[in-house]
Amino acid sequence: MKLFKKILIANRGEIAIRIIRACRELDIKTVAIFSDIERDAMHVRLADESICIGPAVLSSSYLNIPAILSAAEVTDAEAIHPGYGFLSENPQFAEACATSGITFIGPSTETIKSGGDKSKARQIMKRKGVPVVPGSDGPVVTEEAATKIAKKIGFPVIFKASSGGGGRGMRIVHDEGGAANAFHMAQREALAAFGNSELYVEKYLNPIRHIEVQIIADGKGNVVHLGERDCSVQRRHQKLIEEAPSPMATEKFRKRIGELAVKAAKAMKYKNAGTIEFIVDQDQNVYFMEINTRVQVEHPVTEEITGVDIIKEQIKIAAGLPLSFKQNEIKIAGHSIECRINAEDPEKFIPCPGKITFFHQPGGPGIRVDTAAYNGWVVPSQYDSMIAKLIVHAKNREEAIIRMKRALDEFIIEGIKTTISFHKKVLNHPDFVKGSVNTSFIERLASGDAGSSGSNDDKPS
Predict the structure, then answer these.
(1) Is 294 a catalytic residue?
(2) What's the rounded Cα separation, in Å, for the pair 93 and 83?
(3) Residue 340: what are its φ and ψ, rounded to 5°?
(4) Are 437 and 240 in contact (CB under 8 A)?
(5) Domains in the chain: ranges and CATH
(6) CA distances for 383 relative to 97, 236, 324, 453, angstroms
(7) For residue range 346-381, what is the model confidence (pLDDT) as tens digits?
(8) H/E segment holding residue 408
(9) How much is the average pLDDT of 175-187?
(10) CA torsion, points 430, 433, 435, 439, in degrees to nearest 10?
(11) What's the order of all strands across the beta sheet hosting 386-394?
């Protein structure tokens, strides 16, 4: 079976460039889309063709399904790669592609729907024997029902949007007195962010690690995992630093969580690349959290330790080809760390768009920079503040940390504020160096209390 001749990339920035690179190595032509303020964007310059799809406002450009499909039809693109964010997990977009005779490079519409409904995904996992955090069996529609479940499983609990993500539509509740207000606040936020006010209830576990597993399935019965990533360094549920493998993982643990991820993927009848996200508590209990039906921002760390080009595999699978490897062929080699470099005030995490007056990226052995930024580029205020991903690979974690610190010192961006200095602070913290972090690490670091509790040091069995 032949690969596609031309792919339209329904995204922008570094992920669009990442896809362009994979396509070029597969001898596939690319089409870039852009809003009217991004005519000089790097992804537009690098693609074989480009087409403006509307003004800067997202609903008129990167979220404009009719405009994107029209661009694909006008340029004779056979397939669309959605990248991450934007329309990548929108089942209506995947369905519209199919209706238009264009291949959507991702899982099926049904899988995207099931994965996007976190309450439904929990139910599927429970039926298939994948452990989930104690909580409601389905969505809860009233504050009384939510409070009843919370009392049954015990406070603290967390109310979560069924269609949520990125920390929106979530409220932690420590006692019965705060349940009603938290429920309605989470509902309003969920409705505003996702157009769906449906919530479910989970036991709030803290401290925890956020561990995710990269899976790839070809729809021909082959489902493979590529090991785990540790995404515990995050702020307000937004990941900041990711690494692979997890510093807390033994081979036995990796096998166990990998098998759970494969079981979860099979339960969803998964095809293409995806991520199964888990939380791991202090007692080393592993719980399914959610499934991301797209490529992740942090996919490079997995590529670095496995040698698998995830984007290429996505494209090949979408074209009907089988996986090019088996589970026993996947070997973990060395350690990789990724720092997300954002155009933000490193102290307040407030976006700082503007013109980059000087840009020098690091290089040398084991250094990878995925970026769309360049000297003189104006970082737009309308889109996500991430401007680069700095990835290092070394033979072990100790050397990866040293290499990342060198790379951060070499990374010079002037004209705007960035989070480079923040990453230096984290990389030099003794708890991070020991691998003794959890999802509360950044909050404790900000308060000067990192390392005081809940380090999750122990190796799992």
Answers:
(1) yes
(2) 13
(3) -85, 115
(4) no
(5) 6-105 (3.40.50.20), 134-203 (3.30.1490.20), 209-446 (3.30.470.20)
(6) 24, 19, 36, 36
(7) 998 999 999 999 999 999 999 999 999 999 999 999
(8) helix 397-410
(9) 93
(10) 60
(11) 286-292, 272-280, 209-217, 223-235, 238-244, 335-342, 386-394, 367-371
How far is residue 167's CA from residue 144's CA, in Å, rounded to a whole number?
23
Q: What is the DSSP letter of 365?
A: T
- Gap between the Cα atoms of 93 and 328, Å rounded: 35
Cα 188 to Cα 90, 106, 142, 159, 193: the distances in Å are: 21, 30, 13, 12, 9
Provide mean pLDDT across the span 118-142: 92
Q: Looking at residues 221-226, what average pLDDT do you find?
A: 96
Q: What is the mean pLDDT of residues 41-54?
A: 98
Confidence of residue 450 (pLDDT cuts 50, 70, 90): low
DSSP class of residue 132 equals B
CA 410, 413, 418, 421 torsion-angle sign: positive
Region 92-117: mean pLDDT is 97
Angle at 344 between CA 341 and CA 346, to 5 degrees: 85
Q: What is the CA radius of gyration of the chain?
A: 21
Cβ atoms of 113 and 121 within 8 Å: the answer is no
Instruction: Identify the active-site residue in 12, 171, 229, 294.
Output: 294
pLDDT in tens, 267-306: 999 999 999 999 999 888 999 999 999 999 999 999 999 9
Q: What CA–CA distance (Å, rounded) separates 241 from 322?
A: 32
Under 8 Å between Cβ of 251 and 258 = no
User: Is the peptide bond preceding residue 156 cis, with omega within 30 degrees of 0?
Assistant: yes
84's enclosing H/E stretch is: none
Q: Which ranges in 128-275 belong to alpha helices (H)?
A: 143-153, 179-194, 251-267
- Cα→Cα distances 71→48, 79, 177, 199, Å: 14, 12, 53, 36
DSSP annotation string for 12-50: -HHHHHHHHHHHHHTT-EEEEEEETT-TT-HHHHHSSEE
The tokens of 40 are what? 């000089």
Amino acid identity, position 349 = F
* Amino acid code (one letter) for 325: F
Give the residues across from 278 on adjacent strands: 211, 288
Under 8 Å between Cβ of 9 and 21: no
pTM here is: 0.92
Each residue of 378-433: pLDDT tens digit?
999 999 999 999 999 999 999 999 999 999 999 999 999 999 999 999 999 999 99
Q: Residue 265: which of 143, 393, 107, 95 has the closest Cα? A: 107
